[in-house]
Each structure stands twice: as structure tokens, then as C-alpha cells.
Amino acid sequence: MKAEGTIRTARRKLSPPKTIQEFATSAGISYQHLSNIETGKTMPSQKMVHKIAVALSIDYADLWEQVVREWSEAQSGGSITSQDASESSPPADLDR
Fold it and tell me: Which of 11, 43, 50, 93 is positioned for an S-S bond with 82, CB 3.0–4.6 A?
């Protein structure tokens, strides 16, 4: 499973479920960027994962760890783009 599956699955489990457009607005990110994340065209930055975690009301560090793990697995099958692909641990100041 790719990282975008984690985010898409969590978004769809919201009650009530939100469309990608509704969720992007609530997370404060563009629809196109969220779409690129969910379709596996780009890996989200740490700041983007933080915004998504806040909008999902889930723990940022857990989500970041899962995203990094899944993207690392996906890298063996192809390339990804990311501003933060080389960063493996979340900065502590994002949760403040």
C-alpha cells in the first residue's frame, strides 16, 4: 500500500465522510496538491502531513511515520517527488 492510501482511507473514514474538495479546504491545502498526494504523484512534506493530521484529528507523528514507511517501500518500485523525502523524523515544533 502506498502512503496516499493511508491518507485517502483516513479521509474516507471521517464521519460524515468528506469529498477530496471538502477535505482539502478544511485542511487548508489545495485540492490539486491533495489529489497529487492521494494518487501517489508526490510525497507530502512534513508540514503538509501535519496539516492533514490536524484536519483528520489524528496523531501527526504516527501519520508521518506511516507515510515515510510506505513511501520508502514504494520507492523501490519507482521514483517520487518530495520536498522532504530525505527527512525521516518529524520535527517537534510542528505539534506546538
Answer: 43
pLDDT tens, position by position, for the chain (96 residues)? 344 578 888 888 899 989 999 999 999 999 999 998 887 788 899 999 999 999 999 999 999 998 888 888 877 765 444 444 444 555 556 654
Sign of CA dihedral 4, 94, 16, 26: negative
For the chain, the domain total comes to 1
The answer to whether 60 touches 53, Cβ cutoff 8 Å, is yes
Specify the pTM: 0.73
Nearest-10 Cα torsion for 46, 47, 48, 54: 110
Here the cell at position 94 is 510542528
